[in-house]
């Protein structure tokens, strides 16, 4: 079982994740001995693209990589994941990297160093989307310059596509970017940043207030509790997440966004799309790593069948 093949374009970041697992996170000036280390593919844009591809979507990635070995291996990884690499460009210098520290309970701390991601241009995004033509959903995040995402979303609307903004890692959002976003999907911390009252999504009133302020469809991911969203009447609805034992939460939010986008692009209603996102995110935290923790194509088909 699979979704009708929708077309999703991710205009976003790529990173190489450098993940250290440790019983203790060092304090300032302290050195600790870690348990293990892994090197993997990441970046919020790339993660979301991989998850969408595994859900059966046709995915195009728009990004700029460095001329280093990390750039070479990233291109190869996308090709192996079935993601179209036509619109990847290369510049001199370093590709993006993300050192990550993971504690025993699965909590993570991440430092993103964008590198070549910051070389992306508005022309690059616009040209890619015009060339692709038939697009159902365009996804953006905040690991590339906001003006690039704005240009991509503007072009997406010209093509009749829906736009999904994952405002992560959090930064103040420009008014134009909010207006061009059909869907905004923050986690609890990002919600607090967006919220003029600087409060977490601890009540229906708080979520509804932010939804009215943004003026778009709002989905708030709540970790192990699932997600909250605003329905067509402005009421707050909740979707629970499957109960699992979390080993590593790295990339779970991106798994949600990629799966959710595939559902929306294929014409699923919002609640089923959120259930799909929660199921994929919950499945991912039961394994270590980022993209390596995501359900395989076969596992994704099982999750999809359960959701439908």
Question: Which structural traits does this protein have?
Answer:
10 helices, 308 residues, globular, 4-stranded mixed β-sheet, UDP-N-acetylmuramoyl-L-alanine:D-glutamate ligase, alpha/beta, 9-stranded mixed β-sheet
Order of helices and strands: EEEHEHEEEHEHEHEHHEEEHHH
Uncertain regions spanning at least 5 consecutive residues = none
Number of DSSP strand runs: 13
CATH architecture: 3-Layer(aba) Sandwich
Terminal Cα span: 10 Å
What does the average pLDDT come to? 95
The CATH class: Alpha Beta
Tell me the Rg in angstroms.
Answer: 18 Å
Class from secondary-structure proportions: alpha/beta
Total helices: the number is 10
Biggest β-sheet, characterized? 9 strands, mixed
CATH superfamily: Ribokinase
Give the helix/strand layout.
Elements: E1 7-11, E2 15-21, E3 36-42, H1 44-54, E4 58-66, H2 69-80, E5 88-91, E6 97-102, E7 108-110, H3 122-132, E8 137-140, H4 146-158, E9 162-165, H5 175-180, E10 183-184, H6 188-194, H7 204-214, E11 217-221, E12 227-230, E13 236-239, H8 252-265, H9 270-284, H10 297-307
Parallel strand pairs: 1-4, 1-8, 2-6, 4-5, 8-9, 9-10, 10-11
Antiparallel strand pairs: 2-3, 6-7, 11-12, 12-13
Helix pairs in contact: 1-8, 3-4, 8-9, 9-10
How would you concisely characterize the structure shown here?
With 308 residues, the chain is of the alpha/beta class. It has ten helices and 13 strands. The strands form two sheets. A nine-stranded mixed β-sheet has the order 5-4-1-8-9-10-11-12-13, with helices on both faces.
Q: What would you note in describing this structure?
A:
It is globular and about 55 Å long. It has a single domain, classed as UDP-N-acetylmuramoyl-L-alanine:D-glutamate ligase (3-Layer(aba) Sandwich), CATH 3.40.1190.20. The mean pLDDT is 95. The strands form 2 sheets. It has a 9-stranded mixed β-sheet, with helices on both faces. The protein has a 4-stranded mixed β-sheet with strand order 3-2-6-7. It is built from 10 helices and 13 strands. The chain has 308 residues and is of the alpha/beta class.
